[in-house]
Amino acid sequence: DRFEQTWKPEWTERGRAMAMTRHALLTMASIVETEARVPEERPIISAVYHNRLRKGMLLQADPTVQYALGRHVERVLFKDLEVKSPYNTYRNPGLPPGPIASPGVPSMDAAANPANVPWLYFVAHPDGHHEFRRTFEEHTRAVQEMRRAAREANRAARPNGGR
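Structure (tokenized):
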């Protein structure tokens, strides 16, 4: 009952305009819910996944792998990407068969109203914000820069600067 009270009719209309059912929007919103740590990024994260779907790319959403594993992992490793599950969006095209979490209204709104941005990739920083990129090459550089910054921060945090 609560779900039906919360669901906005305009989400249904937006879904139809994007050729998505209510179930698909709910599934997309659940991925956005589990990925976003900075509220303002929800529509951008949603746009990345919508852009990937439109291009026929794999979603490659880490939260779906965590769901497939059946446990939260601090960092999804390459070995985790091999888990055999319809929820593993690194192996299976399109959205997973159903929601991976219970999304809130902001994530539902973001799923129905993705930002108008060209991004296809993003990488999360330890503080939860994301870097968004258009090409795989740009994404690869952003990942390398983030890892370098993390190593430097870890080194600086150790006694004597890690020496």
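The longest strand covers residues 121-124. The two ends are 60 Å apart (CA to CA).
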